[in-house]
Amino acid sequence: MAEQIVAVPERVMVVAAHPDDAEMGCAATIATWVRAGAQAFYLITTNGDKGTDELEITPEELAPIRDKEARAAAAAVGVSEVQILPNRDGELFYTYEFRGQVVYWVRKWRPTVVFTHDPSVMFSEFGINHADHRATGAAAIDAVYPFARGPWQYPEHLAEGLQPHKVDEMFFWGSGQPDAWIDVSDGIDLKIAALKCHVSQFSDPERTGTGSRERAERVGKEYGVPYAETFRHLAFRRPRP
């Protein structure tokens, strides 16, 4: 039986590969926690410039559209700050430099909790887990432990006034083995509103919102609440109630 996560962290950071991934993965949780007093930050590791099947729109045209959609979606759930890295969609690989980008923002925002993709999953309920998702999840894990903690890892950050930082916990969405759940009944409507901001990605945003609501409702029914989201949970420093 999965554990229920009840306590609300002070600061939460989401590391997502594409401009709509946070909404799909954990936006109801973020909205619920923000309403309860948490401060939230989004790091998006690519600009999503190739996220279309349409030949009529170029990557150069799509990137600013997705930037605008991502910021509107984040605002809908109450996110304090959004940073979109200058990496191109589909060209993301786990490198020393990319991991350092994530370490930088962990040290900058100093979150208590980090959410990201489960990099161990090749296939999800939606199909093949995108290569950018896997690279992002792996880099986020390693950025949190041990690289953001060590003062001589990416020492150039020290010169910019950023200090090492220890994250308490991580949560992974899209996991084949979720072991934690969160009651998101207070945040589900805001998740749906955020999803509908991504007009470039969904031919029928209303249907996408309905499907997302139905999935959260099915999970919630399993745990006796109206709506829930599930994650794989990793605690570094202390167990949560």
What does it look like?
The protein has 241 residues and is α/β, with parallel strands linked by helices. It has one domain: Rossmann fold, CATH 3.40.50. The chain contains 7 helices and 10 strands. The chain has helices at residues 21-35, 59-77, 96-109, 131-147, 156-159, 188-195, 205-223, and strands at residues 3-4, 11-16, 39-44, 81-84, 113-117, 123-124, 127-128, 169-173, 180-183, 228-235. The strands form 2 sheets. The protein has an 8-stranded mixed sheet, sandwiched between helices. A two-stranded antiparallel sheet has the order 6-7. Helix 1 (21-35) links the parallel strand 2 (11-16) and strand 3. The radius of gyration is 17 Å and the shape is globular. The model has no long low-confidence stretch (mean pLDDT 94).
> Low-confidence stretches at least 5 residues in length (pLDDT < 50)?
none
Computed CA radius of gyration, to the nearest angstrom: 17 Å
Count of discrete alpha- or pi-helical segments spanning 4 or more residues: 7
Number of strands: 10
Full CATH superfamily name: LmbE-like
Shape: globular
For the residues shown, what is the average pLDDT?
94
Identify the CATH class. Alpha Beta
What is the total number of structural domains? 1
CATH topology: Rossmann fold
Oligomer: single chain
Question: Could you say what the CATH architecture is?
Answer: 3-Layer(aba) Sandwich
Based on secondary structure, the structural category is alpha/beta
Distance between the termini: 15 Å
